[in-house]
Design a protein that fits this description.
By secondary structure, this protein is mainly alpha-helical. The protein contains 4 helices and no strands.
């Protein structure tokens, strides 16, 4: 006795095949990502060079500039946003760096 397959059964089989393929692709992607993440590498040689105090102050200014540019100016203030140098003078940035070096 032969079984007759309905279109519904064929559709379910097609859905199962598609689901299996999607699952296999997702598993492959996750496995590849995990392997790349846990791949052992030789530790990279860190730079032996130390920064001068002037370089530290320069980099600290760049960091503070990014912070200042992303800070939201209050809606209550109608005046334009002041430049960073008006809010944080160089001597203050130098003090931040001197404290960091001291620690």
């Amino acid at each position: 006795m032969r079984k007759k397959y309905s279109t519904q059964t064929a559709f379910l089989n097609l859905r199962a095949v598609i689901a299996l393929l999607v699952c296999a692709a997702a598993c492959s992607t996750v496995a590849g990502t995990l392997l790349a993440f846990f791949r052992s590498e030789a530790p990279s040689k860190a730079s032996e060079r130390t920064l001068t105090f002037a370089e530290r102050v320069e980099y600290q200014r760049a960091i503070e500039e990014v912070y200042w540019n992303h800070r939201i100016w209050p809606a209550q203030r109608t005046d334009p946003k002041l430049p960073l140098d008006a809010v944080m003078p160089e001597t203050q940035r130098e003090n931040i760096d001197a404290e960091y070096v001291r620690r």
